[in-house]
Amino acid sequence: MLIVFVRALILYSLVVIVMRIMGKRQIGQLQPFELVVAIMISELAAVPMQDTAIPLINGIIPILTLLIAQMLLSFISMLSVRARGVICGKPSILIENGKINEGNLRKEMYTLNDLLEQLRNSNIHNITDVEFAILETNGQLSVIPKSQKRPVNAEDLNIPTKYEGLPLDLIIDGRIMIKNLEKADLDVHWLKNELNNLGISNLNKVLFASLDTNGDLYYQEKL
Description:
The chain is α+β, with helices and mostly antiparallel strands. It has helices at 2-22, 32-50, 57-79, 81-88, 102-107, 112-121, 178-183, 188-197, and strands at residues 92-96, 99-100, 130-135, 141-145, 168-172, 175-176, 206-211, 217-221. The strands form 2 sheets. A 4-stranded antiparallel beta sheet has the order 2-1-3-4. Strands 6-5-7-8 form a 4-stranded antiparallel beta sheet.
């Protein structure tokens, strides 16, 4: 029983490390070759995990081999546009200038029901509102509405806006983010004083606190 536990722990740690090295993309954002590698790695890890008669190294070596192959293909894709097209494929335009491209639908084996479903997921309920719909290489549909159907923004109304940068997380789960305080040219003493003025005397009771680019401090206490 102990051997099974140790083997499972080793393989689990290896798979987590390998997937971390492969990148941060979610399953729905993986290229086809990346998805194949992810599935094969999970299968290779499961076999020696279940069967203790199989040497652990028989699972580790193929997993590392797939990792190297995946990194090599990714590197080639970054260097060569032509290789990228072969390995990852090319986007396919399903709606062009407001008209459905039947040829590309058949080529991608994409039904009208699939297209309508993806448009609804993008809050588009009428095909006549769409200028372009592009099926990306990872299978996601990018929808570009017609200019008359796009939401009005501040630029359209000639309204001046202020710069909005990323807020800095100052406290997460009661722990002070020292590096973020330093980025804002602040220190722990300032943070304690600000929270004390808001009635918070114990930083450990703060679930989250952040500082936006306007200098406004947001916080939430733990339950």
